[in-house]
Here is the input.
Amino acid sequence: MDTKNIYFISTVLPNPALTAANISHLSGLFNPTAVNAITTQNNATQYDVAFDVSVAASFAAGISPFDDFGTVAKEVKDLSGVADIFVGLKLAAGTGTIVFEVEDSLGGKSIVKLNGVSTTEQFYGIALASLVGNVDLTKVTNINFTVISENVTTKVGTLSVRLGDHAF
Here is the structure.
């Protein structure tokens, strides 16, 4: 069957059995940063992404980088032996779906949608095998959390991300 380059994107719901004690602790993460947003790092395992996606089709992303953007070389992390990544997410207001993206040094990307993000911190277990795309898990440069205007009820706000361990 020819799908005309249309792909089904997996979704993950929050798992009420998970807590902050379950988040993944990945070595080699640099300080979080953002695209079209501002990050505030609270500690090694939690940062906030202040976003404004009030313009239709706009986006903002919090980035958990393994790549040191201050160097010419692209630093990478081999996550091929990691089965699942566990994260915590919370919106300051409203509800929505956040796109979880893993990006590699060759430009490959794979995603999954995290549904049910709300004002209460919730935890997600993301099976890397469920990601849709072409990322090379042996050459990961970033883990991205993307807010898309059509996917959130509050267009100007803050997304809190819990994932460790960023330089702090």
